[in-house]
Fold Carbon-nitrogen hydrolase family protein.
Amino acid sequence: MAKYIKISCLGPQPYRIDQAVPYPEAVEMMAAHWQRELDRVLPDRPDLIVVPEACDRPYQHPIEKRNAFYRTRGNRIRDLFAENAKRHQCYITYPAHIEMPDGTWRNSVQLIGRDGEIVGFYHKNHLVPSEQSDGGMTYGQDVPLVETDFGRVAFAICFDLNFEELRLQVEKLQPDLIVFPSMYHGGLMQSYWAYSCRAFFAGAVASLPCTIVSPTGETVATTTNYYHFVTATVNLDSAIIHIDDNGSKFKEIKDRYGTEVKIHDPGLLGSVLLSSESDRFTVQDVIDEFGLVRLSEYFDNCRQHRCTLVHE
């Protein structure tokens, strides 16, 4: 059945606070900044708000001052986000540098649920080396999948997007949505991750375009040079279907279900995005009814066919 989710992405410039400002005051300035930013999209009643990497890092503070700020900050900004999540019944990401109980630091994103509680988190697996050598960060090791009331969520942060081994791990998780808080845009890598993982992609990038990308690698919505926030609705009850061996059934599907099924062809890709727009059946029901094959299964069949002939 149609599974609509409204996603908001925010990409303001990193917030500047004079280094002479006392840390308690600086923390409150940061809190006020982020309340203003959240207020830009909350009227749209989003299901999920995504904000950039290290969202509450004071801009251009040296490391010792930055860490002192963080220790004063504690959970103040996270709690602000949690209060908003609970009040507005939405999920909000909180990407931040956090100090662990053993004194090490992580570049992380915490996902806050509609009740204001933490429902999942991810530690950046692929740091820029200077984050470790100069910033004291420790590499994350796990690649979690978080179950939400709208679907399965996986994460990548900034530099992560460059690493095939991480993408392959995320691909195996079969997420419905990849959340990407970042300082780096990634360009074509956003579309590549979305297509290869068969997932929607929500990227919030500081000072650069924030984008919502479909599983066919197409940009659904983006911020502009005028506005650094964007909201769009996507349907997660979708599947990528290759035209080969499936395309002959598309007319029959449309004849039977009309507007209750959407078959979107992005062109040039050889695949379409099949979506259930109905409250009566899921996209998997349509796949089963018409004997369709999802893209990943189709490619696996092609590999098997090649191996069979090569070894004959």
